[in-house]
């Protein structure tokens, strides 16, 4: 990745972005979210729940952080149709000193809108715990995508379930974020 130079220690390190192994409750929620029913429920409710938790805690906590012990990254893209800023709360995968995003959409049939937005305009910003960085997204190579899925499965086994569920019905996009 281009941001691993001495001038930039790496996007994940700059943001202090990392995942914990989680406590037993966190691991149970991670497992449940990876099921077909859990994916369906979370795909429809998590954004709203996360917004509420953020408001109630002054942005100090997120729903996935409290429920599953996962770090949430705010990714702000430009809407491909509206041209407006759109912020999505996403779980990123620390990768090669930087970050990667998996467009799994909880294993649902549709590709998430934020993926289409980044494909139309790869410039974005990411915010974690009050620190914001401008980034550019690029499609991962096949080798990178395999590595990202393997790394992501270590902290959230739901990704493997989503991948099997999606099967050949659509391609799950993997995007690597690099400093702008």
UniProtKB/TrEMBL annotation:
<dbReference type="Pfam" id="PF04075">
    <property type="entry name" value="F420H2_quin_red"/>
</dbReference>
<dbReference type="GO" id="GO:0016491">
    <property type="term" value="F:oxidoreductase activity"/>
</dbReference>
<dbReference type="InterPro" id="IPR012349">
    <property type="entry name" value="Split_barrel_FMN-bd"/>
</dbReference>
<protein>
    <submittedName>
        <fullName>Nitroreductase family deazaflavin-dependent oxidoreductase</fullName>
    </submittedName>
</protein>
<dbReference type="InterPro" id="IPR004378">
    <property type="entry name" value="F420H2_quin_Rdtase"/>
</dbReference>
<comment type="similarity">
    <text>Belongs to the F420H(2)-dependent quinone reductase family.</text>
</comment>
<dbReference type="GO" id="GO:0070967">
    <property type="term" value="F:coenzyme F420 binding"/>
</dbReference>
<dbReference type="GO" id="GO:0005886">
    <property type="term" value="C:plasma membrane"/>
</dbReference>
